[in-house]
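Sequence and structure are no longer studied apart. To make this concrete, we show below a single chain and its fold as tokens.
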Amino acid sequence: MVLLSTDSLPLDRDEHIVIVRQAVRQRAVELGFSLVDQTKIVTAASELARNTIQHGGGGSAIVETVNDGSRRGLRLTFEDHGPGIPDIALAMKDGYTTAGGLGLGLSGAKRLSNEFSIASRPGEGTRVVITRWR
């Protein structure tokens, strides 16, 4: 996989969610994503950015354009140094929530992505990486 470009964006305030959404949409348009695929990756980015702020106490988002042979795509990394997720399997279940929401953030982001990985350690934070291919 070849990395073509990278932007690192802070996620400390709610306004940063909008900035991440705009950056992801712009990259998706540049890559020629369909409107449906643009919406999917932007929605996933929005959910993960919100989680980074609400549950992780803030962190960062990295937006990367990647190339894998004939495929081009967007890889997004969300990282925080918050309390971590003690039970990832439980957190990935539809309907599970710790903040009174619908409980679709992590599982929804996974469904909206072509590739999804999550790593978390209690007391050390969480890192979620998603990729959407064109």
